[in-house]
Amino acid sequence: EPEVTQTPSHQVTQMGQEVILRCVPISNHLYFYWYRQILGQKVEFLVSFYNNEISEKSEIFDDQFSVERPDGSNFTLKIRSTKLEDSAMYFCASRRRGPVGGELFFGEGSRLTVL
Amino acid sequence: AQKITQTQPGMFVQEKEAVTLDCTYDTSDPSYGLFWYKQPSSGEMIFLIYQGSYDQQNATEGRYSLNFQKARKSANLVISASQLGDSAMYFCAMREDAGGTSYGKLTFGQGTILTVHP
C-alpha cells in the first residue's frame, strides 16, 4: 500500500540552526500539508501546498518557515533559525484530488528536538 | 471558539466492550467533513472513518462507527468489541469546504486517550 514517508525520524539540533524535514508524498496525490504536534498536545496545521505554491498557512507558519517541492517528489519543510518552542513532531500529509471528504494520509512524523 | 471539542481527556474500557468517544464541532459552513484518526504510542496518524455533512447515513468502517447528530453538531466515534490494540490517542478533525475554496486543511480536537483493560 502506498504511503507517505518522512525523514529523518528524529533530529536534534541547536537553537538557531537551520533544519530541513523531508517528505515523499503518495505519488498520485496533489495536495500536500505540514502539521506539527507539540508533545501531548493537539495536531496543528502549518501549511498546505497545491500546484507548486502555498495555498494556505497558519499563524504559526511565519517567516522562519518555508516549504518547497524541488523535484516533483520530495516535499520539504525548512525552519531557518530554530527556537526551543519549535521542538515538536512534524507530520507531512498528502491527499489526492477529490471532494471535501478525501482523507489525509499522514507520514510517521519527524521528531525535532531543539536544545 | 474551538472548532473541534473533545471533552474526554481519557477513557477506559474493558476488552470486548463498546466505547464512545465524544466530539462536538462548530462551523457555519454547510459543507464539511468530519474525520477520526488514531495515534498509537508509536506516533503515526491512522485514518479511521469519515462522515460528510450531507451524508444521510452514519458512517461505518468495521468496528468503527460514527454517530453523527448534525443538529447537535456532534460526531461521536463508537468502537465496538474493544481490543487491547485499540489503546491509543484518538483525534476528531473537521474540514470545512469554505465555498469550494478549501484546500483540505483539517482542524483537530485535543484528543482522547483510550485505554483498553484486559
Q: Your description of this structure?
A:
The complex is a heterodimer of chains A (115) and B (118). Chain A has 115 residues and is mostly beta strands. Chain A has no helices and 11 strands. Chain A has strands spanning 5-7, 10-13, 19-24, 31-37, 43-50, 53-57, 65-68, 75-79, 88-95, 105-106, 110-114. In chain A, strands 2, 4, 5, 6, 9, 10 and 11 form a 7-stranded mixed sheet that branches. In chain A, strand 4 and strand 5 (43-50) form a beta hairpin. The model of chain A has no long low-confidence stretch (mean pLDDT 92). Chain B has no helices and 12 strands. Chain B has strands at residues 4-5, 10-14, 19-21, 24-25, 32-39, 46-52, 60-61, 64-69, 74-79, 88-96, 107-108, 112-117. With 118 residues, chain B is mainly beta. In chain B, strands 2, 5, 6, 10, 11 and 12 form a 6-stranded mixed sheet that branches. In chain B, strands 3-9-8-7 form a 4-stranded antiparallel sheet, with no helix packed on it. In chain B, strands 1-4 form a two-stranded antiparallel ribbon. In chain B, strand 8 (64-69) and strand 9 form a beta hairpin. The interface between A and B is medium-sized, with 28 and 27 residues.
